[in-house]
Amino acid sequence: MASTQGTSDWITERTSMSLDTGADRHLWEGGRRYHAYREGRYSLPNDEIEQQREELMHILVMDILDQELFLAPMAEPPLKVMDLATGIGLWAIESKQSLPINLNSSKAMLTAMALVGDRYPDANILGIDLSPIQPTSVPPNVTFQVDDVEDTWVHDNDYDFIHMREASGYMRSTPTVIESVIAHLKTGGWLELQEFHWVAEKEDGTVDPNIPVNRYMDHMMSAAATSEGRKIPIVPEIGDIMKKAGFVDIKKTIYRVPYGTWPTDPVARRRGAVLSVNAELLLPTSDKVLGYIGVTPEQAEALYSDCVKMFHDSSIHCYATYYVWYGRKPEEATDNLGGTDR
Is residue 296 assigned to a domain? Predict the structure, then answer.
């Protein structure tokens, strides 16, 4: 997996300054490693287990989107790109790897093909994250920077495309970040946000609050609001937030992804298997957040166990929803023209 060694060879001057003040060091708590720069801003760890989970998520998303990196209908390939909360940087760089997934003794191979830096060699791509966990060997047109996207931005204001995946639910103010995005896009530039809505819906679209994943999500919503005044899930509301910020031509595409391997369709079955493994890795990272509302480690473990049992119970048919929102900065970003496709 990715190493933090040698980061000063490829990160920008601002990042190097951050590293000198401790961004290259990490904090440990409960046997998991976390970012030290802007300590506590992001609740998930950044250790090897989490990096493997993020890699698995990337493979799943590429499968969902049929190996497309984004859906925004740009007329020309972007020349200046920013990837917010880039994590291990797989979206930004070239990565060719495969992963076997056990589906009831059969194996499905998912391959993440060449990514932005490789597909768009004329583009300059900047990946930003709180943790310096990206690979040291990257395409020459890709740069990584340790920074907090919720701070005041010091970047240029002429980006063609800004992308963010699986991050809005962890931010204290997603609307503020989106306002920063539109201020740093050139006229006609695009924003795209991709994120899972983890609330489990039944096949008919209804939500059963007694499903273990939904009991978990109910606790997480309460804990986020209690600890940081943060609202989750926020992804269904992204279109309205983008419109308020001034974006136009706002569209959404949603994909239903099953929890577990109950579908008979092989594609849905494959995706459900990967989603469930990812969720199993994600659940134990919630101990600290759930503790804010008095959930004990023992109670949290029992809740996680119920969720895992659900993933393996073929009688429970439910889905998570993957959202892709995109919108364009208009010629005159004053009238909030256009609307959302909900």
Answer: no
Q: Which amino acid is residue 250, in one-letter code? A: I
Tokens of 160: 């063609």
How far, in Å, CA of 248 to CA of 190, rounded? Answer: 10
Range 259-264, long-range pairs (CB < 8 A, 24+ positions): 259/200, 259/213, 259/310, 259/311, 259/316, 259/318, 259/319, 259/320, 260/310, 260/311, 260/312, 260/313, 260/314, 260/316, 261/103, 261/104, 261/314, 262/314, 262/315, 262/316, 262/317
Q: What is the pLDDT of residue 94?
A: 43
SS3 42: coil
Phi and psi at 161, nearest 5°, equal -155, 130
318-to-213, 224, 302 alpha-carbon distances in Å: 10, 24, 21
Find the domain containing 194 and state its range. Answer: 7-198+231-258+323-328
Q: Which two tokens stand for residue 8?
A: 């000063």
Radius of gyration of the chain (CA): 20
Residue at 235 is within a domain: yes
Which residue's entry shows tokens 């300059």?
124
Q: Render pLDDT for 275-334 as a digit per residue (tens, 0 to 9).
A: 999 999 999 988 888 988 999 999 999 999 999 999 999 999 999 999 999 999 998 754
Q: How many domains does the chain have?
A: 1
Contact 272, 262 (CB under 8 A): yes
96 within 8 A of 112, measured Cβ to Cβ: yes
Give domain status of residue 313, yes or no.
no
The kind and range of the H/E element at 178 are helix 174-184
State the CATH number of the domain containing residue 19.
3.40.50.150
Q: Is 334 among the domain residues?
A: no
For the stretch 188-230, pLDDT in tens is: 999 999 999 999 999 999 999 999 999 999 999 898 888 777 7
- pLDDT(339) > 60: no
Contacts of residue 224, defined as CB under 8 A and 6 or more positions apart, other chains included, come to 230, 231, 232, 289
CA distance 9 to 12: 9
